[in-house]
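## retry 2 of 3
previous attempt timed out at serialization; input unchanged, resubmitting
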Amino acid sequence: MKNKVTNIYYILFILVGMMAGLLGPLIPYLSERANISIAKAGGFLSLFAIGSMTGAYLSDRILLLSKPSRAIAFLLLLFGLEMGLFYISSAYAIYLLLSFLLGATQGVINSSGNSIMLKVWKEEAGPKITTLHFFYGVGNIIIPLLIVGSAIYLRNDSYIFLLLVLISLPLAFTLFYNQIPKSKESEKDKILYDKRSPYFLIFLSLFALYVGIELTIGGWITTYGILKGTDKDTAKTLPSIFWGFLTLGRLLLIYVIKVVPDRKILFSASILAIVSSSILLLDSTFGIYLAPALIGLSVSVYFPTLYSYGSKFYNLEGRNTGFIFISAGVGGVSMPYITGLFIEYFGALSLSYIIVLLLTIWFLIFFGLNKRLR
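## retry succeeded, writing output
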């Protein structure tokens, strides 16, 4: 039963990764279709993040239902409907609503998946959670390539929505007939450990920063490439470079996390991330491809390793995992939208400075938090 549930969620997280990576490469297409500016189209990413935050909050309630797997199966059917509406609509308001619903669907599955790994595998959950995020990255890699293939070979970007409908239906059917372990509320489902508890909000802020960075790069790197003069179809592959190396990093992490302390992994990766992001400050065509690769490789360890690190100090099953994804949503709401405004008014280079600044802040916060918790 444990392995069956785990395998189902591995497959699901490929789709979750595709959900997360869908809107970024399509922003130029959707802005043109809805006849709006790039800055306004950035609202799609913000609404997606708000939806993801809402879904994370609701995931705890869904896992308490008598048949949570059927509730998630229903959400996958809703996702199929959302994709169908994306395909037929060209209205800005409809896109905003669909972006929110897409984020909510992704948020429920994402948060509940991490909680289930902790619930089912307990102290063995670290590598399982890392593997879960590896499959998430696989979905992130696949989706931009499918979008490019749809544009080049089918000459219509919107066919990607129909493909996602076809993918979601068998997954919904599988979940409907495979029960997920029911979660139980507990007095222990709260912040633990006296003097470390006041730092829980700081711990959460690291997830907000990371997801904000991830969505900013994944969402805006295509637009950044286009504004820097890269061919449009080529620029659409930049998210695949970012997500591809992020996924490679998580594949390596499955083995590294077993032998290297998570604290050392996070320190080393954050330094590499800052150095890698500085490449974007250079006026180099090669740097446009190199920077996403190195940044993706370095930040790949942030979420699963920080999650594992935090589980040593806090109970992260159920509700507290919801808080993590709510915090992640806050970062995902604010940072991509603000970045879009900066790109609109100050040009593509502003993305470079924002990424370097955010990664530096992340490192400084983690450095201070680690000293307090040790």
